[in-house]
């Protein structure tokens, strides 16, 4: 791997920034987060900084505990990124979509179409969904079991990639004199019959420019890691130290090797919260502001949601009650493990407020030089191939990063200074997607 | 109704034009139909001509009888129109989506998001899907019964509109000092439990700019007409004469009145195939070209698909075998009826070739003046509020229409010369969408 290829994605879920309280910042956007122009400005700035992709997280429901205090209303990623395809040229477009509450034929079409619209810049962040609020919007009384969701996800991805492959690259003939639109021998029925899906095919969109839009997967449970190693191009992880990242990479390399895949074909992206502060005073001010903007209610709600356990009746100035058993836990097992890793002496409120400020991510706060040095060190150590940049405050923290940190990263030689030609898959140095029907 | 408000939509399904053989025309586009720039050019021309909307038909499968000769591969409407939202300002964006193979929560989000991205220009063309090829992509051995599909569609629309209503217009507070993002009393759970769906809500997108994106419905079976009268803003029909249109309008008015709705709030749009030819010689050449481009195979395939009956073993120089009984017919009942209305002495091949050139639509061929006169006459008679313009050849027939017919329509005072302000709903003179939770 060349050293100037650190991957950097502008990540967002809340359009105001990664914190549940980001929207309360005096400079936070209000109604404009429901306009295209807000995102167009962000996307163009990201492209001017030669970032690799816009990465939009998603739920298929509103996370509505404490609705009044934090309501993550927002636009839907596939439609938003399709619109942004029209106003950008090079940046990747990573849309989150759930395998639990959609049909593979529909998702295969949306992503194939987005890939054509963007000249090969589409990417699918695959999630299985873990909120009860989501399940309740799709006819279920409770979310499907963790193992069931991952089995479905595996089959779902296999169906989607085969649908993308159902037209060979040379299937379109446009032979007007002979009246041959397509070479019928190069258009394939799947006739898939699995545990979850029965899909005939072919897709009604030809094979997309990338063959397969870039597949991203987050989730570091056992099932998640195996799904990523077997099917993803990019894996979104949470690490808090270089040692942890290197150990994780090593584990994933073993999984990849066991599956006959090359580790270079698998990019690991760590979630970081980059915050540029230019003095100790600014840093202190920032921390004071955070403390003022967050509320106890938000902290308890977040911890309750992560643990799938209503903590409001528990004394908030005492440590957590016994945690759920991971093997039977249908929430985010990665997050459950991260919570276990905190000091068990922390009270519910202390832990909730910590999580509220960090999500599961590595907080990288300092001067532009310090932020750049830290990201470069993580990257050069091999602990991650790049980062999902989860800015606490949008657009402010991102603007400062683009203006101050990006030039330092480029000067250090760890970040590209211009886009490589070709599709997103090519720009990221990922291998061509093989056609299953070849 | 004012007389200068004829509604005109640029309609397409095949990106090369409405005929199955359109792609064979010497000037027909080839690979460019899979690029955004092809549609951007069309959309901008349509907006320059002050057309009301882009109307994109769709199937959730490929119509793959005779795949080699006619393969309707194309981009997906929601993603395509989201991209076009970014490069247009006024034109409506009508996307077809099926109630049979999607989930209401997902569709409600896509359309609400498109409505925000386009500043209130989204519209949903509601279809129930009738092709076996579609059913087979969604786990079914055969398509659901006609009555079942329409029952599901009714409930589906009710859930989607209530999801759009689940945030009151004033629900977003952004009260930063008090930490109140939303007024929780103005965000509603549906707790819907019906025959087909169980959906909790609320949506995770606030109420869209139009309240409800404009609802369009095509399909003139008894169930289709009742669905349209009870829930649609716009109804897409096929008529072949002014008398037929006026009788249809009268029937729909009675249905609307019986439901307590005002006929002015319900726009009827007829499908027409407008072709500008500037001399009898050009007309003859056009007809000869059509005859040369179509094939017997396409004709038999089309008629077989419409009748859900493989006609290939029947003698093609004899009339049709007995037609299916409408009451048990799960295809397009409107089309079945149109086929019944043709001269029963026509042979299978003759009828197939006729359908191949006309779809179900009124062919309006003549000089620009003649085309404009015919459209004005239909419109002023009250037989239709406007037209879905189904150009046989794209972009050529549309370019000629925009350059030659549109100025005549404007000079005649039957077409607006500039866009009205506001959302698509307002531009079309449709009433505000009431909030179910109000």
From TrEMBL, chains A, B:
Cross-referenced SUPFAM superfamilies: Bacterial luciferase-like
**E.C. number:** 1.-.-.-
Keywords in alphabetical order, please. Answer: Flavoprotein, FMN, Monooxygenase, Oxidoreductase
Full protein name: LLM class flavin-dependent oxidoreductase
What range(s) does the Luciferase-like domain occupy? 22-383
- Claim: Repeat is one of the keywords in the record: no
Against Pfam families, the record matches this protein to: Bac_luciferase
- Protein source organism: Enterobacter soli
